[in-house]
Design a protein that fits this description.
eight-stranded mixed beta sheet; single chain; 10 helices
Length: 390
């Protein structure tokens, strides 16, 4: 049966390309998805798959019943886009100004729809159930996964798998990792309130711009001197906003940034130190600080048994050289929520192709991937289902 599914995935590649390009031309931002979930639901329903829409808000869940009893395997794809203006010169480039599929979610969705079709055609030979989770709003915390889980998308699920096409891995490779795989991603903000005035008379002011610079410098000590160097962590201040005139000291300055961690104890240490240092520096210089530390997605932790199984299956598809162990990424992913509820694994499908200029990083306006990656990912999804349903 596995060879039959592999052959069918190959045959469905043109259809998956057509689906992917349609989604790519009509991207929708997180929490604004309407057309995409409608097309997904219509496609699944036409296959005779039981469909539930509006799951968690905008998600779609399809359930394929096998012919004999067995375990329930969930497969997940996300379908939201990013607020990026596409710079690719493509016939299927985004038709929505300022919005683009710059992270491969269109690829994920088309791949999973192809898998759904291939498996639905073999339902008489299938044991157990397959749950197709099409998720909205992966790109924007708190993320669609949390809401879909609360709405029951994992009810009865025994194991779950998810995939991400990866432009930094070449086509023909599959990346796996046991344990810590993607980081927890938190958002931080500090609003500094000083006292504004004329730039020629700083002694009469409490300069929030100068204080903001000291806060940024102080915060670098959180990682370099406060955290075990053997435990990965990142604290980045990415924006400083203050003032509107060259000769006026403003009343306020605002900093925003992100914190990335794997270890929960490290996450707590940084959260405490961040507020303490930001407030302390401001107080020492006569200003006040409003500190916001918003927890985002938890870290993606891949379960060992399921991930080792995916690695073995991957080797059968792309060979020993193509099945690679990847390093942890400080990027975030709300697939972490699913893995907190049921065992499973999140793996990476190579989509890079330097010869075709498809090696730009994710979230870049010229991001694109080798569409043959959909057959690789589709085959691995099918293999994972057969290995776990019985």
């Amino acid at each position: 049966m596995l060879d039959t599914l592999y052959n069918r995935i190959e045959q469905l590649h043109p259809e998956m390309v057509e689906l992917r390009r349609d989604f790519h031309m009509h991207p929708e931002l997180s929490y604004q998805e309407e057309r995409t979930p409608q097309k997904i639901a219509e496609y699944l329903a036409a296959l005779g798959i039981k469909v539930r829409t509006g799951v968690g808000g905008r998600g779609v869940v399809g359930v394929l019943e096998g012919n004999t009893p067995g375990r329930t395997v969930a497969l997940r794809a996300d379908f939201d886009a990013l607020p990026i203006q596409e710079e690719n010169d493509l016939s299927y480039a985004s038709r929505v100004p300022g919005v683009m599929h710059a992270c491969g979610h269109d690829v994920h969705t088309a791949t999973l729809l192809g898998v759904a079709r291939a498996l639905s055609e073999e339902r008489e030979q299938l044991s157990g159930r397959v749950v197709f989770i099409h998720q909205f709003a992966e790109e924007l915390a708190p993320g669609g996964a949390k809401y879909m889980i609360e709405d029951g998308c994992l009810d009865g699920v025994d194991v779950i798998f998810g995939a991400h096409v990866w432009s930094t891995l070449p086509y023909g490779t599959i990346g796996t990792r046991v344990g810590d795989t993607m980081a927890a991603s938190d958002r931080v903000k500090v609003k500094i309130r000083g006292r504004g005035g004329h730039g020629a008379k700083p002694h009469l002011c409490v300069d929030p711009v100068a204080i903001a610079c000291q806060v940024v410098t102080g915060l670098q000590h959180v990682i370099s001197r406060g955290i075990d160097p053997l435990k990965p962590a990142v604290l980045t201040i990415a924006t400083i906003n203050a003032g509107s005139a060259f000769n006026i000291i403003p009343d306020t300055a605002e900093l925003t940034g992100t914190v990335r961690t794997f270890d929960e104890s490290v996450r707590r240490e940084i959260e405490e130190a961040f507020g303490r240092i930001a407030r302390g520096v401001c107080e020492a210089m006569g200003a006040t600080a409003e500190v916001s530390y918003e927890r985002g997605y938890p870290a993606v932790w891949n379960h060992p048994a399921e991930t080792e199984e995916i690695a073995r299956l991957a080797e059968n598809i792309v060979g020993h050289a193509g099945a690679v162990q990847i390093e942890p990424s400080m990027g975030g992913e709300d697939f972490a929520y699913y893995l907190q509820k049921v065992p499973g694994s999140f793996f990476f499908v190579g989509g890079g192709n330097e010869d075709l200029g498809m090696n730009y990083p994710h979230h870049h306006p010229r991001f694109n991937v080798d569409e043959r990656a959909m057959t690789v990912g589709g085959k691995l999804f099918c293999a994972a289902v057969l290995a776990n349903c019985a």
